[in-house]
Amino acid sequence: MTGTARDSRDNRGEWQPRIITSPAIFDWPPRPLAALKWLFGYPGYLLPWIGFLMLIPLVTWFFLTPDLATMKTFEFDWIATVFFRNVGLLVLVAGGFHFRFYIQKAQGTRYKYNENWPGKHRRFLFGHQTRDNIFWSIVSGCTVWTAYEVVSYWLFANGHIGYLNWEQHPVYFVLLYLAINPLRTIHFYLTHRLLHWQPLYRAAHYLHHKNVNIGPWSGLSMHPVEHLIYFTGVLFHWVLLAHPLHAIFHLQHAGLMAPYGHTGFENLVIKGDRKLPGSSDYFHYLHHRYFECNYGAIDVPLDKWFGTFHDGSAKAHEAMQKMRQQVHG
């Protein structure tokens, strides 16, 4: 999380927590101490959320995944195990955030970007945003996620792609594991820009953008065509020398960071004034709010480098309004 604290609501009731700035690691001239603080500080790049996410694939691989030797042939039993495990993980993360923020309403609208609550609307399947989002997230999202994971296991098990032995290459193993977050960020930016190409937007991405006032289940609520594109990041590990653990992490990063990034709340209040900061992605919330900006993530500031950056300021909003007028007339 980066930026200057602001903690205010505008005249539309939109909560504006901060002005977003690029991570110190990309500053020039370099600022080594600031970069280290961003990498290892709290809150920062790794803590609390990315560091926690990095632990989930370890538990998944060692305790919740069938033996690789059994996955040399496609069989219903182990494929079903992987599917229902992924559904369980998604329900735990998206459902957990939804229960806390939207069912219990444990902190009301405190730290909520949009002070309104999602609910019934005819533009959504079943006439309700949350039901629509759950349907697309599980029926399409978990199915496509699992399909990529199942094929990855089959490729590893049959030796069709390189298998990285962590004992022989421990440094490379760890570095590749650490590289998955920036790889995911770059992939997400590129595919997201593709999805905003008008033919693909009208065919698929429009469904995700029905969610202007986002919630945890909005994150993976996408058209099947978008899911097919969204999870293609795992293909890195079909080409690079990798271990199935890297493929699991890449897919879980895509599947579980989506609900985290769409909670709609900047902070999770634990008790009183104690809070877990950065419980959502304000950078991405601005994309849902304004559409033509912030296609990636601030960890790798491609939007800033390619001129699609919105920092949450009134000045940035005015600049975007002018750009829209020039483009659309």
Give the H and E element order: EEHHHHHHHHHEEHHH
Structural class: mainly alpha
Described by the principal axes of the CA atoms, the overall outline is globular
Domain tally: 1
Percent of residues in β-strands: 5-15%
Mean pLDDT: 93
- Give me the Rg, rounded: 20 Å
- Fraction of residues in helices? 40-55%
Distance between the termini: 36 Å
The count of DSSP E runs of length 2 or more, i.e. the number of strands, is 4
Strand ordering within the main sheet: 1-2
The main pleated sheet reads as: 2 strands, antiparallel
Describe the fold and architecture:
The chain has twelve helices and four strands. The protein is mainly alpha-helical. It has one domain. Strand 3 and strand 4 form a beta hairpin.
Defining traits:
329 residues; mainly alpha; two-stranded antiparallel sheet; 12 helices; 4 strands; 52% helix; globular
Task: State the gist of this model.
This protein is mainly α and 329 residues long. It has twelve helices and four strands, in the order ββαααααααααββααα.
